[in-house]
Amino acid sequence: MLILTLRTDKPESELGLFDDNTQLSYEVWHAHRELAETLHKKIADTLQQHDKQLSDLEGLVVYKGPGSFTGLRIGMSVANALAYSLGVPIIAKNSDDWTKEGLAALHTGENDTQALPEYGAPVFTTAPRK
To answer: Radius of gyration over alpha carbons of the chain, in Å?
Structure first.
């Protein structure tokens, strides 16, 4: 089972590729304000390095927070879009062992269907200007 893992809750983003529980690749990069510009390229590069395509993915594991509103929003949007478009399960975890727990959940057939972020505080929106 080819699984992509993603963590985008802080300036340093993490992307992993696993074959079952075997780590094929794990990259940490300083994405910060360039996450939206770099995330898709990092995913494509990681898959290409292992002679894989998006269609080879069989599951996704994503860190759901708490963390940066924008980072979580971008990472979870990408993960949810991939899971939906590929028709593969997605698991969202937030513990220290999120990757291990997420991989185990996928192997037992769990599927969150949609990963939802946990920001760690209520989302604050400002009133529209008149």
So the answer is: 15
The answer to whether the CB of 33 falls within 8 A of the CB of 63 is no
Contact 13, 39 (CB under 8 A): yes
CA proximity to 43, closest of 58, 54, 28, 31:
54
SS3 at position 8? coil
Q: Please tell me the pTM assigned to this model.
A: 0.90
Domains along the chain? 2-107 (3.30.420.40)
Q: How confident is the model at residue 101 (pLDDT cuts 50, 70, 90)?
A: very high
Backbone angle region of 51, left / alpha / beta, with phi > 0 → left and psi within -120 to 50 → alpha: left
Q: 3-class DSSP state for residue 22?
A: strand
